């Protein structure tokens, strides 16, 4: 759709002069007055079209900051609305670490990474469940919804995980001692 609009823009879309008659002229003194308003209308149309497409994705969430304890489950609740075919991707970020949790297309496929496979549940509305929380799960979670046409929308969540690190040591007899 953008290609057709750009061709009209390039050709000037001037009704007073056939597009091929102007080829190679550019904006000269002879044709700039009659061509310029057409360019303005086309730029307005392209901007309007881009605005409509960018607004086609919506991510709603009741809560963006969550606090849970170690071994709890968390549900990142979102409601994605999208006019076209879309893909949902969740990413985890903390400090220098950034990793994809999973990507899915509602009703078509689900691809959860190996690190999260046993703990993540995906939902068609874009929501994600993460079970058996660990301290290292604390951080920033981003859901990205992307359409085939290239437009996308992001929403971020902060997860705080309360708890203590568990450590283990063995005594002289080989007995494992665990303290939490």
Could you explain the architecture of this structure?
The chain has two domains: 2-54; 57-162, Immunoglobulins (Immunoglobulin-like, Sandwich), CATH 2.60.40. Helix content is 21%, strand content 40%. It has three helices and 13 strands, in the order αααβββββββββββββ. It has helices at residues 2-11, 19-22, 32-54, and strands at 57-60, 65-69, 74-76, 79-82, 86-94, 97-105, 109-112, 120-122, 128-130, 139-147, 152-162, 167-170, 176-179. It is elongated. The N and C termini lie far apart (60 Å). Residues 1-15 and 25-54 have low confidence and may be disordered. This is Immunoglobulin subtype domain-containing protein.
Specify the helix fraction band. Answer: 10-25%
Mean pLDDT figure? 75
CATH topology of the largest domain: Immunoglobulin-like
Q: Determine the strand fraction and express it as a percent band.
A: 35-45%
Can you identify the CATH class of the largest domain? Mainly Beta
Q: Which structural class do the helices and strands define?
A: alpha+beta
Number of strands: 13
| Shape designation | elongated
CATH superfamily of the largest domain: Immunoglobulins
Major sheet size, sense and barrel closure? 6 strands, mixed
Total number of distinct structural domains? 2
Unreliable stretches, pLDDT < 50, 5 or more residues?
Answer: 1-15, 25-54
Q: What's the gyration radius in Å?
A: 27 Å
In the CATH hierarchy, what is the architecture of the largest domain at level 2?
Answer: Sandwich
- State the helix count: 3
Give, in spatial order, the strands making up the sheet with the most strands: 2-11-10-5-6-7
Run of helices and strands: HHHEEEEEEEEEEEEE
Organism: Gasterosteus aculeatus aculeatus
Protein name: Immunoglobulin subtype domain-containing protein
């Amino acid at each position: 759709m953008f290609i057709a609009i750009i061709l009209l823009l390039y050709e000037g879309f001037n009704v007073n002069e056939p597009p091929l008659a102007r080829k190679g002229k550019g904006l000269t003194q002879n044709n700039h007055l009659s061509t310029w308003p057409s360019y303005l209308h086309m730029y307005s149309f392209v901007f309007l079209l881009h605005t409509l497409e960018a607004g086609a994705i919506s991510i709603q969430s009741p809560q963006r900051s969550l606090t849970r304890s170690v071994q709890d489950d968390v549900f990142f609740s979102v409601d994605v609305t999208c006019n076209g075919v879309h893909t949902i991707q969740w990413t985890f970020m903390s400090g220098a670490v950034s990793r994809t949790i999973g990507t899915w297309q509602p009703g078509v496929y689900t691809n959860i990474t190996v690190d999260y496979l046993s703990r993540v549940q995906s939902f068609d509305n874009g929501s994600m469940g993460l079970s058996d929380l660990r301290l290292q799960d604390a951080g920033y979670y981003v859901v990205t919804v992307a359409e085939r046409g290239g437009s996308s929308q992001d929403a971020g969540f902060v997860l705080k995980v309360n708890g203590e690190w568990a450590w283990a040591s063995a005594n002289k007899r080989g007995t494992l001692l665990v303290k939490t």
